[in-house]
Design a protein that fits this description.
206 residues, mainly alpha, two-stranded antiparallel ribbon, 68% helix, globular
Length: 206
């Protein structure tokens, strides 16, 4: 393995510092503010870190992705709770859906995507490069490591089961590489959280 790039070391130092602050004072927006302030202070181009719209992709692309990823998740969630717990499905929306959407798309989704996909993945790529091609996109170990760290950070505020969000991190990291920005991953992040809330409420365990 090549020596760690100075910016990779910088990001790995900023990660635990931001985690302690964000969890300690209960402010998830610090995942956005800390790297943004740092990038701005260093006068680095925002586009390098995906702080732009990028190339969001066509409606056909997103229809295929939503159907495959989120449709597949919903079916798996339904099948598991049906078989394991004998649950039945009763569609139930969150009574505060608008507030939920704003919280999970902007406060949580955008903030975490700016740090983990925009900042951390970018800086990890400076050490590991992007030598592999995955579904038409150049990626590298930065995507995998950023996803694993994303999962481990979620363990701090829950149990070890929450490390499963690393799988979403892989998907979001791929979206970041494909679109060139963090806007699309942030929207998917928020929608994934909303869908999870919907399925959790809708699967009624007797």
């Amino acid at each position: 393995m090549s020596r760690l790039h100075p910016r990779t070391i910088e990001a790995l130092v900023l990660l635990p510092a931001t985690l302690v602050l964000a969890v300690g004072i209960g402010a998830p927006t610090l995942w956005l503010l800390v790297p943004f302030v740092w990038i701005t202070s260093q006068r680095r181009p925002y586009e390098e870190y995906g702080l732009c719209l990028g190339k969001p992709g066509s409606l056909g692309f997103h229809a295929l992705v939503v159907t495959t990823i989120f449709g597949g998740y919903a079916l798996l969630h339904y099948g598991f709770t049906r078989i394991a717990f004998g649950a039945h499905f009763e569609p139930t929306l969150n009574p505060n859906l608008l507030q939920l959407a704003i919280t999970h798309i902007v406060v949580i989704g955008l903030s975490e995507e700016v740090f983990f996909r925009g900042y951390l993945q970018t800086e990890l790529d400076k050490t590991f490069g992007k030598p592999y091609r995955l579904l038409g996109v150049q990626v590298g170990w930065g995507l995998i490591l950023a996803s694993l760290l994303f999962g481990l950070c979620h363990v701090i505020t829950g149990d070890w089961g929450r490390v499963r969000v690393a799988f979403f991190g892989l998907f979001a990291g791929w979206l970041r590489a494909r679109t060139g920005g963090v806007v699309v991953p942030a929207l998917y992040h928020g929608f994934a959280n909303i869908l999870y809330d919907f399925m959790r409420r809708s699967m009624i365990i007797p």
